[in-house]
Amino acid sequence: MDIKAPIIMETIFIAIAVIVYTLTSNTFFIYNFLYIGTAISLELFLMAKNKSYARNIIMLAVGSYILIYVGIMGHENMLMSGFWYYLFSGVFEAAVIHYLIAKIAGPFLFGRGWCGYACWTAMILDLLPYNTSQNERKNWGYVRYILFALIFCFVAGLFIFKVSDLDLIMFYLFIIGNIIYYAVGIVLAFKLKDNRAFCKYVCPITVFLKISSYFSILRVTVDKQKCIECNKCIKSCPMDVDMMNNSKKRVNGTECILCLECVHSCKQDALKV
Ligand code: SF4
Ligand code: SF4
Ligand code: SF4
Question: Which residue puts its alpha carbon closest to atom 5 of ligand 3?
């Protein structure tokens, strides 16, 4: 990876910090985006130095910051239920801004980088023993759409029925939701021998992520002239992406989390981002 990547990433996050601060006048967003940007830039720097642990370390740094500091200590529901809640309330704060940048608009530029470098659910799932799927991929992707619809209807119902103490309910939803996500994610990972099974079948956020990441500017492409078709890259991919096909319509193309395992596995230097 180009050593310039960390500098470019830091610059992007400084720009985001300035734009969001200008829009909200909230200084929290300055240090929030500087922290996340610096963590990701450091990670890119370590990856450029071929440090294999870099991604896990930075995922833990960013993921636990959002989970513990913003979510639990700051009482901000950063799950999808929180996104709908703050959006319906007209509150343009952390959860809404986070979803707009990391999960709705941002993926047009950096695909599902959030899933590869910052998600607090996957920061735990990626520590489990099955980095690549040991089984055939299941046809269970519909589960994410059901969960997405259920969450939307549940939060809408809270407003329609004028339920009180919504802030408190949202806080408890954040805690309970995360416990359920971790439990389901860990059970699925062991059951299917696949750390990322939760991401592939259950996570409702992928409904947003898959749409915008289809158009992502940042994506893995193959140089067919250099490729010797050894398939090492395919075997190293945790998300079953057919990175040997440069088309946007490649198999599981919107599943790519930009982890770069495929790029590192290619001894022919045929893959690049
Ligand atoms: S798919 Fe969901 S759980 Fe998995 S990394 Fe992305 S946001 Fe996190
Ligand atoms: S690892 Fe490299 S050479 Fe082997 S199939 Fe993949 S792109 Fe081609
Ligand atoms: S191994 Fe390559 S294709 Fe698969 S998710 Fe990681 S970066 Fe994307």
Answer: 256
